[in-house]
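User: Fold both of these, please.

Assistant: Here is the first one.
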Amino acid sequence: MKILIADDERLARERLARMVGQLGHEVVASVADGEALWAALDAARPDVALLDIDMPGEDGVTLGGRLAGLPTPPAVIYVTAHPQHALRAFGTHAVDYLLKPVAPDRLREALEAASRLTRAQLATGQAVDDRLVVRVGRAEKVVSMQSVICFEAGDKYVTACLPDAEYLLDLSLKQIEDRAGDGFLRVHRAALVARRCMDVLEMDAEGRHWLRLRGLSRPVEVSRRQLRLVKESMGGRA
């Protein structure tokens, strides 16, 4: 793949360029700021842009957002020493977020992920952003949407329930539903579940319906308003 590197530190650009070359890819441009990036973009036509976040002028996240709006955008991978920018960064549909000093294996994984997002897919919006930034104490972690069993809305936060953990998100349930697509179904105003995990629909003595999900030890309540959609989705299992 053709790679563009943008970082205001010369040594950082040179190190990334060596790693990119060792992985069998071509560096078509190496620039120190956003102005130089835009000047080089048409001639370089990169498949992937490796963007530092803290640069003079436009920062990397702003650049990534502008790149995403191009008719045929490169895939964007952020490379930074600052983990606190992850929420902003993934809002621009970045492929990955690498922390300096970048390990060769992490760069390889990120470039492999980028290679699966073709320029045509990105241009037509067919590429699906599968990543979620979740809270782990005071830190943040990126998880795959496909690892989530359900999302539940509380008073202030939405909880992502995975088979082995639960994480808080700084997104509304509506925002998650809009991103999740057909793989998830709203079963209650406070619950969004993965269709692939829907197992058994039960009714209690008070007439309320509960949905059991594979991988989750407790059932999720189904509202009367959504009951028909749940039954249709489950077919003969309801």
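And the second sequence with its predicted structure:
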Amino acid sequence: MSAKLDKMGAEREKARQKRDEWDRRFKEWDQKYREQENLEICDITHSYHLTPDRLAELLKLARTALPETESGENTTESKEECGDEE
């Protein structure tokens, strides 16, 4: 191969390695962010002494009280549940 192509290949490989490292770091920070967010949600829930049943009831009430988005979904849809960590 030519020297120019070898140099370009080496630069491409360095860029790929940097991309992979940034992807890994982003996934780590995203996980840490979600864990902290869930912890704060659980702390708030516990501070109000809400049982899982009472929390579900409140969320159901909130869903009916909030306006729907353009896609027809309520704005309080949750993808993860809070586990009891005490």
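The chain has a mean pLDDT of 86.
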